[in-house]
Each structure stands twice: as C-alpha cells, then as structure tokens.
Amino acid sequence: MTTTNGRIWRPLVAVLALSMMAAACGGSDDAASDEGGSDADAGATESESNDQEQAAEIVVEAEEQPASEEALDDTEQADEPEVIPPPSGELRIAEFGAVTSFNPAAVNSAQFGFLIPVYDTLTRQDAGLSVVPGLATAWTRPDPNTWEFTVRDDVQFHDGTPFDAQVAVDNIVYHTSFEGNPNAGAWGGFVEARVIDATTFQVEFDVPKPQFPLTMSTIPGMMINPNYLDGSDLTRNPQGSGPWMHVDGESQAGVTEVYVLNPTYWNPADQGVEQISITGFPDNNARINALITGEVEISATVADTQVVTGLDAGMKLVSVPNLFPFILITDRNGELNPALSDERVRQAIAYSIDRDAYNDAVHAGRADASGGIYPSNFSQFHWPEFDDLFAYDPDRARELLDEAGYGDGLTITMPIMPAIAPAVELIVQMLGATGINVELDQINNGELGPRMLSKEYGISWLRALLDHPVGNLPALAIRPWDTFQVGDLAPVDELVAAASVSDDPEEARELYAQASELLLESGTIISLGHAGQNAMYAPNVDGVVMGLGMQSPYPHGIRIIG
Amino acid sequence: MLRLLVGRLTAAVPLMFAVATLVFFLAQANSSDPAGSILGLDATEDAIDAKRAELGIDQPLLSQYGDWLVDAVQGDLGTNWFTGEEITTELSDRIPVTLGLAFGGLLLAVVIGCSLGVLAALKAGRWQDRVITVIASLGIAVPSFWIALLLAYYFAIELRWLPAVWPPGGPDGIGEWVEALVLPSVALGVAASAAIARQTRSAMIGVLQRDYVRTALAKGLPVRRVVGRHAIRNAAIPVVTLIGFQVAALLGGSLFVELIFNIPGLGSYGVDAIFRGNVPALLGFVMVIAFVVVLVNIALDLSYAWLNPKVRVRG
Amino acid sequence: MSTRQRVQARLTRNKVAMVGGVYLLVVVIVALLAPLLAPHDENLATRFQDILFSPSSEYWLGTDHVGRDIASRLMFGARYALFAGAEAVVVALAIGVPLGLLIGYFRGWVDAVVMRIVETVVAVPAIVMAMAIIAGLGVGLTKAMLAVGIVYSMVITRLTRAEVFAAREELYVDGAIAAGASSIRVMFRHVLPNVAPALIVQTTLLFAQAILAEAGLSFLGIGAGSDQASWGRMLRDAQLSIDRTIWPAIPPGLAVFSTVVAFNVFGDGLRDAFAREARGGRIGVGDVQRREARPIDNEGVPVQEAGGSSASDPVLTVRGLSVAFPRLGTDDDVEVVSGIDLDVGRGEVVALVGESGSGKSITALSILGLVPDPGQASASSIMLDGSELVEMPFEQLSRIRGTDIGVIFQEPFAALNPAHTVGRQVAEPLRYHLGMSRAAARARTIELLAEVGIPDPESRIDAYPHEFSGGMAQRVVAAMALACGPKLLIADEPTTALDVTVQGQLLDLIGDLARRRSMSVLLITHDLGVVADLADRVAVMYAGQVVETGCLEDVFASPQHPYTEGLIRAIPRNVSRSGDLPTIPGLVPSPWEWPDHCHFADRCEHVTQECRSGAVALTPSATGLSRCVRAEELALKGVREEAS
After folding, report:
1. What radius of gyration do chain A's Cα atoms show?
2. Which of chain A's termini has less CB crowding within 10 Å, N or C?
C-alpha cells in the first residue's frame, strides 16, 4: 500500500523541479533551446523496442516544427504525409490518486495526467525530451529576460471560442495572479505579458528564464478557455482546448474521470483513442496488478521494484530518468541537533550510505547509484568525478564520528511518512550500522514538505526532479530549503548566476560543477542515486511518449492495436 | 408494526448525528493542517490562510460544528475538501458498491455458516462436529486483510482466474459484478461464516435438547423434519442476533478489503478521509455507516417478531 | 470441591483448550525471553544488504525488505501482541466494569445517558470507531490500542450492567440491602463474583480480538511505527515487497492467526468450564440394543415376569432393560437402569413408581428409543403388541412411535413448540402418519381438542402454546399424544408441573381416555396419591431396579418390600398424629454407588447379613413380585392397616 513514489514527490516536484526560484540566472541565447531539456540521451530507457517506438513516433510528430534557433522564423508546416486512421477504443489509465482540481492554476504537476487530455499546453515534449511546438509554433528570445511566442491560429476551445495571443496573455496573467498557485515558483520574476499581434505575444521577466519554454510544456503552460478566467470554479469543470473533453456525468469524483473525443480538435493525429478513463489506485500493488490482469492499458507511477513484475508479465516500460532521491540536511547550524552542525558528522552520514544497497532495495537495482547530482544520462551536466563521491565506507564514517566526538554513538531524528517508508527504513539501517541511531517521527503523507519548511526537522529524505542546474541547484538546498538560514551556500547562488550568463558551455559546466561540489562536499545534499519515473503499458498500446515532469504518458498519439 | 418501524427509523436520525458529533470533536484533536496538504508544498502563507478560510477551519470549533450541523440536517453534507465534489454525491455513488460487497460476504457467511453449524449440531460429538468446530475456531482468527492479500496473490495474480482489482469505471453487467465480488466477498466472509457456524451450532444444540424436540420425535416425525420444521426456527433467534453483529464487523472489515482490491466503496472513502484529515467527508462516512447498521438492526428486530410469536403478540 | 476447583478440573479435561493454553504460555515465554532467543536484532539489520533472503541457517525465516531477520522480529512481535492485547483489555475493563457496575446499580438517568453513549459508539463498527479516535489522538501503537480499548469498554459495560441487573433480582442482594450493608459493599461483594465468570471469558475473547485489531491498524499504518516489530507492522512491511516475494507475509500472518486461535479455544474452554448446563447431545435418538437375558441372582433363576400377575393380553412387555451412560472423566459406563422387566396389559393402567433418580423416566424413554445421547439402552426384548422394538430400524420405530405409542411429558410448555400453533402441532402427526388432508386434519384436531376437554376448540386451535394455562397446555399435549389412536399411552409425571387443583382433573382425563379408547397407560410418577387414583397395577422402582410389582390394592395393603412400606408410610394423610412426618432415612444412592447386593440395604430397617450377600433377584411374592430376600417373613405395614 505504500510506495517509494507517491504523494511526497507531487509537492516536491512543484518546489524542486519547477519552483526555480527567482534570484539567479540568465542563459545564453545559444543555450536557449538546449537548456530546455537534457539531450537525447536522457530518453534512454530499458526497453530497446521502446526506443524504436519512440523514434517512430517522432516521424508522426514531425509535422510540428522543431524549435531550433535557425528554424525560429520559419513556420513551415509539413504536409500530412499519410492518411490518419480514425480514433478507436478506450484507453484506461491507472493513476496513483485522484484529481484535486481541474484548474491548472490550482494544481501541482502530480495532476498532469488528469488535465493533459483536456488542456493544450503552449509547448510539448517529444520522446527525446526536447521541447517541441504545441499551441505555440515557435519561440524566440528578443532579449535575455523576454520570450516571444508565435501561436497557431486554428485552435478552438471546446465551446468554440477561438484561441489567440490575447487568450494566451490573459491566461498568463491568470496563472500568475491566482491565489495559492502551487506553481508560483515557475513564474518567479514575472513582470508582464503583452500581445504583439493576433498570433504573437511576449512574456517578460526580471531575470533570464532559459527553461521557460520547457515550463510551458507542463501545467503552467495549460491554456484555459478565456470565458472562464473570471473567477469561475473550474474544480470539476475543465475548460480547455485539448483532444478530449471531460464528461462529468460519467465520471465519479475521487474514483474515475472519463474523457471523450473532441470532434473539432486541431490535430486529429493526436487522437488515437475515442475515450479515456483515468482511475485512482492508491494501492501500489493494485495499480500494477490492474495492468497485468488487463484491467487498464497504462499504469502510472510504477515503482522500480514493481517494474520487474510488469516486465515479466509482458508489459512495456517508459521511463524518464530524472528522479533524484537524496538526504537533505538543513540544520547545519545545529539548532535542532548540535551534531549536525559539524561537517564531519554530515560527511559520516554520507559515508554510511551504501548507494548500491539502496539501489537494490528501493529500486530493484534499476537505478544509477552514482554520487553526483546529475547522472550520466544528463550528459551536459554530468560530472564523472562525483560518481564515487562519498562511496560507501562505514569505517571512514566511524572514524569521522569519532573525530567529531561521537565515537559512542549519536542520535538524530528523521521524519517518515508511509509513501517513503521503505527508503527511510533502509537509511535507518545504514546509519545504524555505523552507530548513528535514528529516531523516526511518524507523519502523514503530504506533510513532509510543510513540516520541513517549518523547521520541525533538520534532516530528511527528499526527492527532486532534475532538468537543469540553473533551476535545480538553488532549489535543492537554498530556496526554500535554507530553513535554518545558515547562509553558508551563498557561493552556490553566485556560481549558478555566473554560469547562467556565460556564453561558453564548458565554462558554464565548470561553474555548475563547482556549485554542485559545494552542496555535496558540505554534506548538505547526500545523493542516494538516480532513478527513473516509470509508467508501464500493455503490449498492444502504441505511441507511448512521456516527458519530464510527467508520471503518466501523453495520451496524444496513443493507439490501441488489436 | 408499521408504527414501530417508523419510530425506529426516526430514532436512527439522532443517533447518526450523535455519532457524527462524537467523531467531529475527535477529529479536531488532530493537529495536522489539511489546507497545507491540499495546496501542496509551494503554497504561500497567504494562500494557506485563504484556503483555511475557504474551508472554514479558521473558525472556532463550535461555530464550525454549528455550520456543519445546520447544513447537514437539511441534507447537505458539504463538499469534499480534496476532490471538490458534493459529499452526498460521492457517498451515494459508493454505497451500492460497499453494500454489494457486504451482502456478498454476508450471503457467503450465512449460507456456509448456518449449514455447517446445523451439521455440526446434528452430529455433535462425532467427527463431523469436531472438524467443523476446529475449522470454525480457525476461521474466526483469520485477519481479513491477510486472507485478501493471499487470495489476490494466488487467485488473481498467479492463476489469473479472477480480477485482482475492481474494474476501472465499474463492472458492466451482472457477470462482471459477480466476478469482481468473488474474491473480496470470500476474504470478507471467512471470519463471519466461522462465527455464524459456531453460534448456529451452539444454538441448535441448545434447541435439540429441548423437550419439544423430544416431543416431536415422540410423535414419530423423521429427524429431517424435526430439524427443519421445529428446531431451526427456534435456533434462529440467537443466530439472527449474531448476524446483526456480523454485519457491523463486515462493514469494518470492508475497509481493508476495499483497499487491497481497490474497490471504490465506503470503506476506502473513510480510510482516505481519516488519513487526510478530510473532516466533512469523514463525518458523512460515519453517518452513513451508522445508518446502515441501524437499518440492519431494525431488520433484525422485524425478523425476531416473525420468528418468535411471543414478541409478535405483544408488539 | 469448590467452584474454582471444579472449574479448573473441567478446564483441564478439555484437551483442545489445554493445547490453546499451552500455546499461549509458549507465546508469553517467547515474548519474555525474546532478547535471549532472538538470533538477530529486532530493528537493526545485521547486514542491511541481505534483502529479502529466503530462510537459511543464518536467517531462520529469511529477511525483510531492509535486511532485518524475520524470525527475530517475530519473537519480539510477541511482546507487542501481548502488550497490545493487554492494553486494550485493561482499558476496556478499567472503564467498562466500574461504569457497568455504577449504572447497573443506580440506574435512572445516569443509566439512560451512558447507555445512549454506548449505543452511539457501538453503532459504528469497532475498527471505524477506533480509527476515528486515532484520528484525534494521533497514530502509534499505544494510542491505537487505547482507542481499541475504549471501543471494547462498551461491550464490557453492557455485559457488566446486564449481570448487575440479573444479580439485583437475586434475593441475597435484597437481603444484603435489608441488613443495612452499604451499597458499594453490596456491589463488590455480591455482584462481582457473579459477574466474574462472564467477564473472564469475555476478556479472553477480547484479548484475541485486540490482537487482530492491532494487526489491522498497524497494517493500515496507524498502529505500530517503523521501529516497533509488531506482527501487524510486519504484515504491512510484507505488503511492500509482495510483488517480489510473498514469503514475508506468511510468518506474521500465521503468528497472529495461531495466537488468536489459541486465545479463542482457551476462552471457549473457560466458558464451557464455567457453564453449568449440560453440553453436547445429539438429537436424542438412541436405539435399543439387544442383549441376552442374563441370570440376575446366584441361584441362577432367570428373571421373568412369568405371566404372573400381569394381564393375559400384554400390550407391552419389557425384558431385561438396562441403560448405561459413560461416566465423566473415566472410560467406564455406569448403569442407571438395571435389568427392568415390565408388563402392561391391554386397557390396563400400570404405574411405575419411584423417587427422582430411580430411573423411571429413562425407562420410559428407552421404550420409545429416545435415550438421550450418550446413553445406551439395551434389552433382551421389548414387545409392543407383537412387534419387537429392540433393534428395530429407525424409520419403522418412528412410525410405531407416532401411531402406536402416545407420550405425555412432564412440562407442557417445554413439550410444545412455542413457534407453532397448537392446532398445527396436534395436526402434524395426523397429516404425517395418517396422511390426512389439511381440512380433515383440522376437523379431527378440533375433535381431539374437544375430547381432552379444551373449551371452544374451534378458536383455540389457532392459538399459541403460551396462550394456554398449564393445565390446558397439558391437555393439548394429551391431544397430540392421542392423535393417531395409540395402543399405549406413556405419561411421565403428567401432573407434577401443574397446580394441585388441576392435577386431579388431568388424571381424571387420562383415566377417561384410557377407558374410552381401551388404551393402555404406563404412568410414571413419584406420587403415590396419583397412583392410588388411577392405577390398576403398580411397579415400584428403586435405584434403577424394579423392587416390587402387584395390583394396586395388594401393594398398598400389604407391601412386599421395605421401600414400598416406607413410601406408603410417608404419604401425608389426614389423620392426627404426633411426632415428625415419617420419612425414609438416608439418600438414594447414585448409580455409581450402587452396591452389588440389595440397593436398599443401607436404608432398610429390616436389613440383615443376607441382604448384603449378593444380588437379589425379583421373585414371586404373595401379591406379585418382590426383590426382597425377606419378603416372605416380613409382615410389612400397608395403608389399610393405618386406616384402621
């Protein structure tokens, strides 16, 4: 019933992946499109045939203009290469939980799967995790802090209202002013959005936001019908322009959401199925069992330990390898536990961690047990010298503890909630083996973030979604996580800021490496390895693509064969 | 009789509210803040405060309770803090599912339990009785969720004979309903059938020792007739009482079974509400449960009247 | 033996319960010695890399998902199980008993308020209520079991209250009040011991339920925490790895299961040990087995009621009827009826007379083939109007029971099924044996009811037994017995349960019926007055044997056995006398105390050495048969002599 995935990382994603808090960085123009995503290697998955499928998929999606520097001013539309078969069948998806709201301004990325059938985003991601056109056909950067988007002119919302640049601008204003928007961090530094003409608009920030196009492929980029931007309650009433429409009458809140075909959708190639139903399966075993026994076609948020079961049963895997579990030590000035103020103690904790064993136990050996912040499949930001950083060395750990004066043992307190219990329990074992006694504090799912932020704990297991160091590095340990206001990581901010304005990718890389080194050597961030976000699907399902920040694949383009 | 029925039903209403009141004040003692959980990690202080105001949890306790009560007596159980849906709608969608499950479990329990109990009583002291008594003693000791886990593992995953989970979107047609209910009902009904078997056995033994059974035998009637016509009706009363208790136990057990098989019934609704601190949903849930239990008790009392003429004449 | 010793004895004899008790003892020992017995640590894996290992010599039951030894955790789990159960039970008793005592004793508005609260809590399933309480108190094993204990206390309150109510009715409580004892003292000293047995049983069973509850709540994650190796917690952990291996779910599940079973069987054993009523008993059908006619006395004279004083046309002849029951706690059988011979002539009323414990009712049941299990009847012959009943197949015997023999038992309301109308019960044999239609049976029933003297039979036919008075109910029973026109009516203490005023009427009725229908009657009674009214012949039973037979007048006038003399002498008569009411000194010996010689010897005022020398046969006497060696020489006093 509990899972290593699950509720914890929904809010985490909000903070860590997309709450690229203000401060920092611009990015070079050259780096613009590339920074939006890791390179194609990141699309590497376990299953080779998967790659073939995704490669094949790219053919279909090639009608869209890839967002390269050169192609920015051409909006060439490829001709439809072949006749598109009509949509057929019902796609049944098993998600972890239930949708909390159908208002994109009110939900975090965990709700993506429920909203993406009905809402279009400005941009999308392809199988290679690159940013490709969605509602926007092209985007440029007139100046480092401003993005200019060109949008399609043939899009209608489900009630027939047309979409244009004004609608986009109104949406951005809505998103940025919505009270309690969990994605507020993604909009950090927002100054203004303005219409240029019917199909062009600009968004200005007070800092460079190189990952903004990528951000626009996720929930903040979802466009809402302008008639409903007036304070209407969209909680159970999605108003989008997407390939499917939500049918409230057939849905059961908290259980199953049902979507049917949008007959006037602007890209019929996306519509491979007539109907989608998404059902909540809070129990991990039930969720994978549903896939294995044929009750659903796609199972979202599949833990690594269950992937083997799925594969054995002939199911297929799509995986986005950007999960980064780690231990965060915020109490570096010893307010809650004086021991943690000693860098040697923090390093001892790091040496006590056996990443291989963690990988075996928590990720069934499928993860990458390297010690840096970025794994090797983020080739642009991977720093091989960190792979073996703080490699498992319990003797060294005991030495350090002894030096620091805790040779007789040490007690620390960590929070534990059901969704992350196996991971934390293993950490308890590892620390226990070197003499560090961990007392666990039981909390409810969903409470980890708020409680850490309110300084109830000074050390905890956390997990981040990686995409780009400009956003990730400060977000991991500084904003909002410097809860004890230690201030010792100011150099990280400086390094990242310098890297984001550098024109030289190598220089930027070097600077990011230095920033990472600071985080890691100080024992603030202790890597537990790198894993993938997994979804599994039945063998008769075709066209499955999943992007960064998603836990279930795009329904777009999926077909059920046979 | 009708007047009695109406009276009992009306008395049920204050009971439901009493239960809800009790639970309301119990739930308040918990310190977790649902507003934070709903909004997620990144919510600002202001957003959380706004949410709390929207949910009404920044009001003093008694006024929160008062507001809820005023709405509830008019039939409005409020909105689910986490899904935004009307709680009455959510509950009414889930009630048939749980009732189906409970009924399945009960049917199994009564059929198997009574048959075994009668058989054991008739063969008291012989090997059939010993075997049945032992099995029944074992049956009431089995945790329902353990059985559910094992059943799901062997019959659904390993053997693929039956579905491991509730069909998403609900079962279509009687066939799918039955298929979907088999494993959960068995998991639920095992303990109940054992308890019913034991009680039936002891009630039957008591009755078989009674003089009117001896008289019936003295009248030269065959054993089957004596058991069927004379004994069972009189043994039924304590058994019926037990069935009433078992219904409450079945509703409790449905919590676990619904979680393991992912059944969208009342049980999983309640567990979710408790874990997330979803107070209005929790109150609605306990009220419905209390009401179902009361209904069952009323049905039991009616059956007493039918079984026992002494009650009938007086009532 | 004191009550406690008796209970203990009964409990230890119950093998299943003792196995349960021993198992519990094992659990307790394991719990206490866990730190010594467990090969590994309870919470820290020896090597955390040893994940989900199968059982091996190092890890007896394998390891869990973080490398901890399952066997060690199982042992420590016993501590949590016992602790959890104990906490819940202690809380339940601590709240429930005082509360139940208080409200049971003082009643009034306190009772009303508390019972409303109890009903409210009980209206919700226990686990739901416990979870709601935990939602308020917070998670954790101690708090969870506190919640469970609170819910269970409602059960204890109701139980205690009910027992208090029952105890209030008892006179001694009133007596204690009258004697001026304070109310609290009354409660504790008088009520508590009565409540104790039920409480003990309930506590044991609740302990089992509490262990199950802990397993469930920990499974959900709101019971034991990560650092508490309870069995429920282990099941929760097992579920996390169930997709990789199901094994970790097995040991804790079995542990919970077996411990709960042990508590249940032990609790059942306690309940049975405390219970005073008879246990077991199949539906009472006992066929009579054949046995050889055996010599009874050392003279080798076979016992025969050789035509003798019985009628020439016997409806019923019984030879050598014995009934044996297995003796509790031993492998022996005990004879409760020994070598009965009996004759009943056509149209004759024979009274079988004796005190309670003489075996006369069992004799009658044996004839019917209804000796209650585990008794076993045997006889060399039981002839009913030419048909041999011994070893007759059950269906055939049933038929004869239904049509040729009618029975009136002692308690009319017990004999009648309270759930059926009297009409239906009387009609039942008519419809079943005689195949009458509903209408015909109804008509005949009305006739029968009229025949037994029930006024307004057309409307009374649809009444229920509880709507009749005792006497009338017994008449209904008589109607039922007569329905198919039996040749023999067996009436076992038919008037004993009735008012004295009504007794005579019923006896008259029986006499009438016998004469009108030329029906034989075997009348079983302890009351010589009844005998005098009705009987043609008398057979006197003492301690399982017939000791004298003869015609009514003869037996009364000149009894041939000292016991008969004693009986006659003890009849209260309306004659002025001085001194104590004459009784027979001593007590009827229990069947296992019967000597090999004359059963009456120890109480007989005419006893000699010869009486104790060996078994005494039933031999012809002046007036019939007698089982007294001194019958001929003694001139025993009868009734007539007194009257003069």
Report:
1. 23
2. C
| C236-to-A284, B256, C252 alpha-carbon distances in Å | 13, 12, 10
CA distance C420 to C422: 6
Q: How many other C-beta atoms are found inside a 10 Å radius of the C-beta of residue C576?
A: 5
Q: How far is B274 from chain C (nearest CA, A)?
A: 6
Q: Is A292 on the interface with B (CB under 8 A)?
A: yes
**SS (HEC) of C169-227:** HCHHHHHHHHCCCCHHHHHHHHHHHHHHHHHHHHHHHHHHHHHHHHHHHHHHCCCCCCC
Residue stretches of chain B with pLDDT short of 70: 1, 4, 29-45, 47, 305, 308-315
CB atoms A11 and B40 under 8 Å: yes
pLDDT tens digits, C398-456 = 888 888 888 888 888 878 888 788 898 899 888 888 888 999 999 999 999 998 889 99
C-beta separation of C186 from C173 below 8 A: yes
- pLDDT reported for residue C301: 37
- pLDDT (tens digit per residue) in A78-96: 455 667 888 889 999 999 8
Q: Give me the sign of the Cα torsion angle A504, A510, A511, A516.
A: positive
B contact test, residue of C159, C263, C417, C496 with most B CBs within 10 A:
C417
pLDDT reported for residue A309: 86
Contacts of C268 in chain B (CB under 8 A): 137
R_g (Cα) of chain C, nearest Å: 34
Cβ separation C225–A440 shorter than 8 A: yes
Chains near A with 3+ CB pairs less than 8 A apart are B, C
Buried b (16+ CB within 10 A) or exposed e, C36-50: eebebbbbbbbebbb
Minimum-distance CB partner of B212 among C215, C280, C415? C415
The first and second tokens of residue A185, run together, are 């961090």
Q: Using H for helix, E for strand and C for coil, what is the string for B3-61?
A: HHHHHHHHHHHHHHHHHHHHHHHHHHCCCCCHHHHHHCCCCCHHHHHHHHHHHCCCCCH
Radius of gyration of chain B (CA): 24
Global ipTM: 0.81
> Which of A289, A456, A463 is the best mutation test for B, with the most CBs of B within 10 A?
A289
Q: Do B208 and C268 touch (CB under 8 A)?
A: no
**CB contacts < 8 A (A, C):** 73
pLDDT means per 10 residues, chain C with 644 residues, are 71 83 94 92 88 91 92 94 94 93 82 82 82 79 91 88 73 55 64 77 88 90 85 90 87 93 85 57 57 44 40 79 74 80 88 83 83 78 85 79 86 82 89 88 92 90 89 90 89 85 86 88 87 87 88 87 84 70 77 82 83 82 84 75 44
Show the beta-strand stretches assigned E in A186-315. Answer: 190-197, 200-205, 244-246, 256-261, 275-280, 298-299
Instruction: Spell out the residues 6+ positions from residue C306 whose beta carbon is closer than 8 angstroms to its own.
Output: C620
List chain C residues with CB under 8 Å of A429.
Answer: 44-45, 48, 66-68
Claim: this prediction has a pTM higher than 0.90:
no
The helix/strand/coil state of C534 is helix
Pairing of strands C624-626, C619-620: antiparallel
pLDDT of B54 reads: 75
Question: What token pair was written down for B50?
Answer: 């706004």
How far C323 CA sits from the closest chain B CA (Å)?
18
Contact C547, C541 (CB under 8 A): yes
Provide the pLDDT for residue C242. Answer: 83
Average confidence score pLDDT of chain A: 82
Share of chain A above pLDDT 90, in %: 52
Asked whether the beta carbons of residue A279 and residue B43 sit closer than 8 angstroms, the reply is no
Beta-ladder partners of A276: A91, A259
The model's pLDDT over A523-541, given as tens digits with 9 standing for 90+, comes to 999 999 999 999 999 999 9
Q: How many residues does chain B have?
A: 315
